[in-house]
Amino acid sequence: MPCAAAATSLDAGEGLAVELVPTSAEGHVELQHVGLLVPDPGASARAWLDFGFEMASRAGTVERVQLSGAFVEFHPGDLPGTDRPLLNHVGLLVESLAEIEESVAEQGFHVNREVDAENSKAIFVRGPDDVELEYIEHKPSFVLA
Predict the structure, then answer these.
(1) b/e per residue 2-24 (b: at least 16 CB within 10 A)
(2) From first to last of its 145 residues, what are the pLDDT tens digits of the chain?
(3) Checking DSSP bridges between strand 132-138 and strand 120-126, what pairing results, if any?
């Protein structure tokens, strides 16, 4: 979505604000980072490495991991439990879902569900900090508007 077509700051409710930052001259935007409250930021960062992320340089004192230029930040804290979390999964666009499936099998992680849609296919895996990770591959029929 072009940034010029939307507000640059969106209130998603429940204390979640989304800031849109252009990533191209055309004004397209991508999610650059997400911050999670976790009991032990260092342990969380290390756990995410098993899911294809790499350690990233800290943002001040904040632990971070990265994948394809996007970051997950870990802040110390606890969230109250809920049956309907605002963030219910993190989607990760990958080149080859077959490679991810092989890696998931080798690591012994459980695939919660698989989706084979018209223009994409995906698997969902329970990741660290009880965050579900969606690995998604676009099929050749996928076309950006």
Answers:
(1) ebeeeeeeeeeeeeeeeebeeee
(2) 444 555 566 676 666 666 666 666 666 666 677 888 889 999 999 999 988 889 998 878 889 998 877 888 898 988 777 776 666 788 888 888 998 888 888 888 889 999 999 999 999 998 888 888 999 999 988 876 5
(3) antiparallel
> How far is C-alpha 127 from the geometric centre of its chain's CA atoms?
11
**CA 36 – CA 129 distance, rounded (Å):** 9
Q: Which neighbouring-strand residues pair with 97?
A: none
Dihedral sign from CA coordinates of 96, 35, 77, 54: positive
- Fold of domain 31-138: 2,3-Dihydroxybiphenyl 1,2-Dioxygenase; domain 1 (3.10.180)
